[in-house]
Amino acid sequence: LPGLQALAIAFALEVSVGKTNTVMALNNSNVLLPCIFTTCIGFQDLIFTWHFNSTEMIYHGKIKSKASEPFLVARNPRVEFVGSTTGKDNNISILLKNVEFSDAGKYTCHVKNPKEKNAEHNATIFLTVVQKMVEADNTVTLIIVGVVGGLIGLLILFMLIKRVVLFIIKKTQDGKKECLVSSSGNDNTENGLAGSKAEQKAPPKA
């Protein structure tokens, strides 16, 4: 039973940064770093911290209970708490203001719950800072669609030209056949007439 109790405690506290663990932000903008935690048996005097690259603590907060909002212990001047723990989710997200290129890196949301025998859990999110947002995927998709569409159009045009050419060739061949049949009929008629005239000649006198 002690083993099962320890297992339950180990899986009671969970921390998450959402479906994706990567965030991209423009230089000089504000960026949200999301984090929520869940606990099966509740919490008391819960402590949460945010660390940058595992060394620099940029936010330190404490929550007395589910009925109270977190209160600040310490923070970086550019970091603002934007979460809430009295609602449905235990949201301990922060807002990083005036992002700089040097802010790119790993941000870890760490939670410690004394009510669960000081059970600890954390989740990590990676921030990338860029000068300009580039929608590379959409551009590539548009290029691919354009190329495929162009190839299909060329194929259809080729098939139409082929049908027209075959139609013209067939008509030309049919016309030649008609000419040959007509010419052959005229020759036979002329030969027949010539033969008839020859037969109509009077026999030589004896």
UniProtKB/TrEMBL annotation:
Signal peptide: none annotated. It is found in: Membrane. One of its GO terms (cellular component) is voltage-gated sodium channel complex. It comes from Atlantisia rogersi. InterPro entries: Ig-like_dom, Ig-like_dom_sf, Ig-like_fold, Ig_sub, Ig_V-set, Myelin_P0-rel. Gene3D superfamilies: Immunoglobulins. This is SCN4B protein. The gene is Scn4b. Residues 178-206 are annotated as: Disordered. One of its GO terms (molecular function) is transmembrane transporter binding. Residues 2-126 form the Ig-like domain. Keywords: Disulfide bond, Glycoprotein, Immunoglobulin domain, Membrane, Signal, Transmembrane, Transmembrane helix.
